[in-house]
Amino acid sequence: MYLVALCFFLGTHISAISQDKKEVTFELKVSKSKLGINERLRVDFEMNHDGDNFSPPDFEGFRVLMGPSQSISSSWINGVRTYSKTYSYTLAPTARGRFKIKQASIVIDGQTYKSLAKEIEVTAAVDKPSDQMTVDDIADENLHLIAEVSKTRPYLNEAISVVYKLYVSPSINVSNFRPLDNPKYNNFWSQDMPFSKYNIQNGTFKGQPYRYVVLKRVVLYPQKSGKLEIEPLSLDVSLEVPTNKRDFFGGRIYTQTNKTVSAGRRTIDVKPLPSAGRPADFSGAVGDFDFTVTTSKTKLNATESLQAKVEVKGKGNLKLFQLPEPVLPSSLEVYEPEFEQNVRTTLSGMQGKVSNNYTIVPSYRGKYPIPGISFSYFNPKTGKYSTLSSEEILIDVLEGPTDGSAVVSGNETSDRQPVISSGNQFNFIKLKPNLSAISTDHFFGSTRFYLWLTLPLLLIPLAIVVGKKREAIASDVAGNKIKRANKLARKFLSKAKKELGQKEAFYIALEKALHNYLKAKLKIETSEFSKDKIATLLAERQVDTATSEGFIGLLQNCEMARYSPFSDVQMQQDYNKASEVISSMDKQL
To answer: What Pfam families is this protein classified in (predicted)?
Structure first.
């Protein structure tokens, strides 16, 4: 007991010492650096250690409406203490112009600390002062969805990236979001770049400090020249917005609301590839590439095989052009090529290599040249076309028949040797085969013979009964449809259980199971699905509210899971909920 108390005392003492050793900070924070003369300004002096003898500035150019109010925050996390103390003021400007909030001072552990001064610009009166702004007005000012495009004037088939970022001001809190409308990239070849979780980062937006999270990344290759539009991404965001009310300790009271934000349409001006200097063999490759033609061997015997590889590697639209084909002698047997690719996509575009592998089998002895071939591409960095050519490859077939040796024309003499008979090529068939009887136990006329003969007659009544049963089942169209849908629902629910831990695969399987269950029970097609219609139909079938809301909630979770992080515990809870809801709905329907 004494040992435990001693360890607790030492741990607390060490944590307190480490807290004391932390660097002391004393900062001035303002709600905005520019405001109208009819608006209000909040000023906070924040420190991470307790202090005394706080001395505020004189607030020249402002009138103090409220303050100082004091708030203290202290917490222990993993044995580490976090402390914050704030003195807050609410000010009203008295004139237009530029004013400085001067230094304030505080004494901490016997040492005086001073905050840095900040300049505030006061403009003419605004139409709607910040203290009269609605919740939506505050959300509009502090929440922004931006689509950052890497290049707005690319060449045809040149890679561009679009990164969607949600910027959130430190003055508001976002609790959740879900996509309302995903953009369709018409006239673009597109590839999403998914990531496992969202990371919150610090940045700036229009010169002000913001937090932001990257929601979506996509790489695009324009397939058409001219002005192309990228449709906007829209989100429904749940957030907490500060009000003018404060709690007992002086802290700001927040209210919850929902806001729809959109990234807005972006226009991409795609430049066509220049026609001047375009090679005749150009097949649409755009980027920076290397080109090679190689063979697995150059010496072999007839009927043996070799591999010829035509390969392009580098950075560009590797999946969007045709590889050149080699021209081979007709006496070489060539099989259809096997296409291979090793391509990865980053925000800068596709990188890697693609190749065609040809299997070649020579039939005759001789030397066969594989002529060099060329590959042309357009380099958007230089704005010019480039052509790469391979060297000629000579295939030497060492052993085998010569070409045409098996064919002799009518005018040529033949050196064929006559065939001499040895006298025993043809023999008579034996006249005495020495055959013997195999058995006296004959099947024909036996008991087994008559049993097999009468068995079909005995099966006729059974076949009639089974046939009528099958006809009844086949005529029950609705019943068959319900059975198939139920079977499919069980199948997908079983698949969802196997995919636990794999978020995307799990929620796809779960959503399919729920949809097929509805098709079976409510007899509606998938195209008719909407949450309002489902709720109405369940109410008409007298399904209780809790079960109906549980079912709708599962469908919403399946939608949200594509764009929001979900843990393994949440997936297990949704699976258990699905089993419980389907069981409950079965009893009621």
So the answer is: BatD (PF13584)
